[in-house]
Design a protein that fits this description.
Low-confidence stretches: 4-11, 14-25
Radius of gyration: 17 Å
Helix content: 25-40%
Largest sheet: 2 strands, parallel
Shape: globular
Number of strands: 2
Strand content: under 5%
Number of helices: 4
CATH class: Mainly Alpha
Distance between the termini: 52 Å
Mean pLDDT: 81
Length: 95
């Protein structure tokens, strides 16, 4: 009985790690993504990035010929400042 209760508590507290996980997944569950290939849904999984900012990132990428040359170029997007960039930097890269 005690094992079942403990197992139930552990499972209830475990973060969702499957498709359809909440947009605010814990940072440990975020796999690094290439900004030049990322989809809106992938970008929404990043800390501080909602649908509006994700779409702005893709629009900015498209305006640059479909390519960011550096992660720092995100600072040129309205709504992304030093704090947001610092939060997402470990999870994004450009190829």
């Amino acid at each position: 009985m005690m094992r079942a209760l403990l197992l139930a508590l552990v499972l209830a507290a475990a973060p969702a790690c499957q498709e359809g996980a909440p947009a605010n997944s814990p940072p440990s569950a975020i796999e690094p993504i290439d900004l030049n290939r990322a989809t809106v849904k992938q970008l929404e999984r990043l800390p501080h990035i909602g649908e509006k900012l994700a779409r702005s990132i893709i629009a900015s990428r498209n305006a640059r010929g479909g390519r960011f040359r550096s992660v720092d170029e995100l600072l040129q997007i309205d709504g992304i400042g030093e704090k947001t960039l610092a939060a997402i930097r470990p999870y994004v890269y450009v190829r």
